[in-house]
């Protein structure tokens, strides 16, 4: 084991705590609005605010990470999440909920998401040797997906024992606990001349000039369209179509944890055996087909199998895409490329979540899921036709 390995292990453990906490906030605001206010539109608005701010701030997060220590940017992001958790605790302690504090907490969580993902990915690229970067990035993304998948299980467990404010207090505690794990870690600082030249517009120019990077980012945004239907439509589908109790709904949503873990493991296994680009395109098509199967489900086991397949396919595709982005980016632009990833992977779910909430206002949950599945299938065909640079990415070395 290299001398850097213990530091990298601490960094990844800190990532796990942060991403579990972040997804507890995301799922929490959605499920709280549906549980207390019985309003899918408010859940879509909350989800949008959690992921919307990166559209304005995410670009600058990458430039900051290229100009300064990305670990300092991570610290600021954690403080924003802790503040968001506090606001949401206050909002949910009011009888019937305080909608203004709810919106403020969601927005501050969105500020945290703007900075935490690009900064942590930029830091990973500086902490890990180039020869181990592909595997470490897949493992990093596996932790992100684990946080996404385990969050509804944790929320269901907490809600069995405590009121809603405890859910958000738990999320804030995870962010506080993640900070000491970063103590003592160091990332190389850029030279003063290099730092002065780091701009957001320079990141745009770099991405436009690198077809593989640009097409990987596009495919990433398509895959993240899945999150809106899964986080906004699926709970309503489980309630109205499958008639599941709250605990059972949490278990169904938590099926994504198994699928995402399986997808990350499959990505590690298949990346060195099959062309990565073609695996990504196949995963997009598989998520669309799985949503169609979910929409047609009439029994819990059918829905669980469909959710599992969708999550596994998404886990494979996203894990490979993040690794492709890391390896295709040079060190001088890594933070800004990761900020593009953050913006697309958070704004896309935000828009998807908002659209899902609006769709549920006029469509039955099954019809909404079917429409989302058809959209993903159409996008997979378009990517296969137009994304030649991505399609040609070979197996990892």
Structural description of this entry:
It contains 17 helices and no strands. It is mainly α and 397 residues long. Helix content is 82%, strand content 0%. The two termini are 21 Å apart.
SSE topology sketch:
Elements: H1 5-37, H2 40-51, H3 54-67, H4 70-93, H5 99-127, H6 133-161, H7 164-178, H8 192-196, H9 200-208, H10 211-223, H11 227-240, H12 246-270, H13 276-295, H14 300-328, H15 334-360, H16 365-386, H17 388-391
Helix pairs in contact: 1-2, 1-4, 1-5, 1-6, 1-7, 1-11, 2-5, 2-15, 3-4, 3-5, 3-15, 4-5, 4-7, 5-15, 6-12, 6-14, 10-14, 10-15, 10-16, 11-12, 11-15, 11-16, 12-14, 13-14, 13-16
Name the shape in a single word: globular
Q: In DSSP terms, counting alpha (H) and pi (I) runs of 4 or more, how many helices?
A: 17
Q: Could you list the spans in which at least 5 consecutive residues all have pLDDT below 50?
A: none
Distance between the termini: 21 Å
User: Nearest-angstrom radius of gyration?
Assistant: 20 Å
| Helix content, binned percent | over 70%
């Amino acid at each position: 084991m290299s001398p850097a390995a213990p530091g990298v292990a601490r960094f990844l453990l800190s990532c796990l705590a942060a991403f579990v906490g972040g997804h507890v906030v995301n799922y929490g605001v959605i499920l709280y609005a549906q549980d207390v206010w019985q309003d899918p539109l408010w859940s879509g608005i909350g989800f949008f605010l959690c992921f919307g701010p990166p559209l304005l701030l995410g670009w600058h997060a990458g430039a900051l990470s290229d100009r300064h220590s990305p670990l300092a940017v991570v610290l600021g992001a954690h403080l924003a999440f802790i503040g968001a958790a506090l606001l949401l605790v206050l909002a949910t302690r009011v009888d019937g909920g305080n909608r203004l504090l709810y919106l403020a907490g969601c927005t501050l969580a969105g500020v945290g998401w703007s900075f935490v993902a690009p900064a942590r990915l930029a830091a990973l690229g500086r902490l890990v040797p180039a020869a181990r970067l592909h595997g470490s990035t897949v493992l990093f993304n596996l932790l992100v997906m684990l946080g996404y998948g385990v969050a509804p299980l944790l929320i269901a467990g907490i809600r069995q024992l405590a009121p809603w404010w405890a859910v958000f207090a738990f999320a804030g505690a995870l962010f506080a606990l993640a900070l000491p794990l970063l103590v003592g870690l160091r990332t190389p600082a850029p030279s003063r001349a290099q730092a002065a030249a780091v701009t957001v517009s320079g990141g745009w120019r770099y991405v436009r000039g690198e077809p593989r990077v640009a097409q990987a980012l596009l495919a990433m945004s398509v895959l993240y369209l899945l999150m809106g239907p899964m986080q906004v439509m699926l709970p309503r589908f489980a309630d109205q179509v499958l008639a599941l109790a709250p605990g059972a709904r949490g278990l169904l949503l938590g099926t994504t944890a198994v699928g995402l873990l399986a997808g990350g493991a499959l990505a590690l296994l298949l990346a060195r055996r099959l062309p990565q680009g073609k695996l990504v395109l196949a995963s997009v098509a598989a998520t669309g087909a799985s949503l169609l199967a979910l929409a047609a489900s009439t029994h819990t086991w059918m829905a669980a199998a469909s959710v599992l397949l969708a999550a596994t396919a998404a886990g494979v595709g996203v894990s490979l895409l993040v690794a492709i982005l890391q390896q295709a980016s040079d060190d001088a632009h890594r933070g800004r490329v990761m900020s593009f990833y953050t913006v697309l992977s958070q704004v896309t779910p935000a828009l998807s979540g908002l659209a899902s909430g609006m769709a549920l206002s006029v469509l039955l949950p099954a019809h909404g899921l079917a429409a989302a599945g058809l959209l993903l299938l159409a996008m997979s065909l378009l990517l296969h036709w137009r994304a030649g640079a991505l399609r040609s990415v070979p197996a990892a070395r």
